[in-house]
Amino acid sequence: MSTAPGTLRHYSFQAKHLLFATFGLMALVVFVLYDLPFVTTAAGQHFAKVKWWLVPHGVAGLAALVLVPLQFSNRLRAHHWQLHRIMGRIYVGSVFIAAPIAVPIAVMQGPPVLIMASIVQSGGWLVTTAIALYCVVTARSRSIASG
Amino acid sequence: MIRSYPFAMLFVVARVVFLIPAVNHLGELGIVSDVGTCNIAAYFLPTLIISWKSIFGHKPAKHALAKSAAAS
Lengths: 147, 72
Description:
The complex is a heterodimer of chains A (147) and B (72).
Chain A: H1 15-40, H2 51-71, H3 74-79, H4 81-109, H5 115-145
Chain B: H1 5-18, H2 21-24, H3 28-50, H4 52-56, H5 62-71
């Protein structure tokens, strides 16, 4: 995954840029149509019983959503390695906060048919992030061992 | 990391899919189908993206095949 500075290509539009731009637009649509009414209108009472669970879940989830596109930046990885590592740590921490909290929110808020979907999603998110962390740690220890 | 991010994207994508009128009209069944399908996609799509080149990549040119056959 690492890119040596010497082999770094000049900026060019890639598929991942289109993907992240589309995803950014979708996130904006979701924020305006779904989330904003819960903050600005009385519809927010719908989440009254889980509001204190939503704070860490929302903050950590937002951090995870925003940080990962930057983790895929070859330029950032090549030129700001330390920043890349710090953001990676924040992402992993965010996932380990946001994913488990989604389950009690689903249980308390309902509908019951979505509880299993929430468990499957949270489990998948935790497991894949743990695998990514394991790969990073073992790759690093291998590179240290090889000199 | 590429396998992890789709689960974060699911939060947004499932809600966007639910905006489609045909899905929206299904009500609770639509929500469950939507979230379930997006979950399955989050598990399998990264593998497809990672393996894209090896599955759909260009076949080696004839002269390259002939060259490797000659070498062996």
